[in-house]
Predict the structure.
Amino acid sequence: MENSSFDIVVVGGGHAGAEASAASANLGAKTLLVTMNVDTICQMSCNPAMGGVAKGQIVREIDALGGYSGIVTDSSMIQFRMLNLSKGPAMWSPRAQCDKMQFSLNWRHVLENIPNLSIWQDEVVGLLIKEGVVCGVKTRLGLDINARAVILTNGTFLNGSIFIGQGSWDGGRIGERSSVGLSDFLRDYGFSVERLKTGTPVRIDGRTINFEKLTVQPGDDHPQSFSFLEGKRLESQRSCYLAYTNEHTHQILRTGFDRSPLYTGIIQGHGPRYCPSIEDKIVRFAGKDKHQLFVEPEGWNTNSYYLNGFSSSLPLDVQLQALHSIQGFEHAQIIKPGYAIEYDFFPPMQLKYTLETKQIDNLYFAGQINGTTGYEEAACQGLMAGINAALKLKGKSPFILNRTQAYIGVLIDDLITKGVDEPYRMFTSRAEYRILLRQDNADIRLTPLSHAIGLASDERMKRVGEKSQYSAQLVREIQDTPVLPSEANALLESLNTPSIQQRVKLVNLLLRPEITLDNLLTISPHLKAVVDAIPTYLKEMVANDAEIFLKYQRYIEKEKDVADRILKFEDILLPANFDYFSITSLSYEAREKLSKQQPHTLGQASRISGVSPADISVLLIYLQHAN
């Protein structure tokens, strides 16, 4: 290993590291993944699930680009649900409960079978840097490993500290030591290093839970898959359950506040606002007398359950007493306690859009060290860092997704433009163009782009072409096929929607909110024959794609027009290392913010807090005169 030389070294074997190393290796770069423990690759440190609101869209995008998170999820899932079906399709979000042990094993199997990819168990404690360019890593075992680029994906392990009550110790996860040395090394090179906090709840022995007192939450009747590639569908599922805290639970939790690291000032880092600990919830939402909890199985062959919503760093006796006050958990036994973890991260405004650092060439950051939270947010950053590192070494143009193309583009733009003051979590509300960025069309949006750079396979591209072709044909048939009153009115009356008095096109009926494509198939033999002719592996996706397009066509086209106008700013480049203080007509705040951040485009500048539309107009006039 010491005498080996690699194109790219990826540091960290979590979700970001796995996607980064897979992408770089698949693009032809000789890649080494260095992880502190090869037996915990892609371990689900927190809840045993992938996807969810906005996160499911990210997993679909990773898959469309040729990543593996969707494929591994499909092979590991024990339940599937499509969330938000009562809302519009922009909000539909796939979520899969996973067998956490199988998930890790499946990821390891994927990585061990990728050509150009090697794995090494060790700890990186420093970097080899020459004239401002990274050229390798230093490890705890005393090795100097040469590389042309390095991607850091250290997660919560950088100077990680674990807290339970008034006790604390070093660790990146409970039972695993933290990584020491790398943060200080990078701080000495001028990087800003700050602290964040996250946490996790108790794991419970399912044999001690009274499920009869809980509300069952089964999976979908017809579970889907995450990957756009054809795979085996889930035939049996494990149920999740709903439980609730009560006022007595809250009273017990309050008794531990004087020993809480969160409220005694021991923990300094900011925690996730949108996934707070249970003690934080009862303080912030003092008027609520109960909070919903999700009881999630951690696998097929384990009795361990994850109590989602009960994250805590309170003393063990308080955690147990509060747990026993919840209906259904009166005699519950804890397998693993809840705890908080505080760790170093690097404020992401120090990065370029490619996730390469501004201070050191060919050094990339991805995942929680950029201030994000969640497997999905980490994985997509790893994928993009791996792609861009490999492309740069080949002398090719960077691969950058903008806010109109992908949730991944929204996430990266938010990170490097706005920065973070708490762990960043993706939501549909963060995406201005979410009607365009639906989970169902991620392959149409992104696979052609990835195929063009050599990552997405020919098989993926072929399926996208077929899906587009059959969808367009189905749309035309729905738009052109007529239906008579005698054929449609019985159905319309049964659905409590007005009958028709003359022949109309099927599309006129489909535009009614009560009518679905499945309804139309019952009254139009011709349309049914068209759908039946679609290959089985594409039928569900094509039908869904066509129905969404026709029902929401006006909204989709309107949003696309807005996005196209905004994109004009993204094409206007700003000078590198420009002296914004020389433009005195800019507001002083704008000059400060622009000088510090040095945005790449006028579009990025417009999204910086403190830069007003008037400032953007001044910049636009300046650029026109300069050219």
Q: What stands out?
A: The chain has four domains: 5-199+343-453, 203-338, 458-558, 572-626. The longest helix spans residues 458-480.
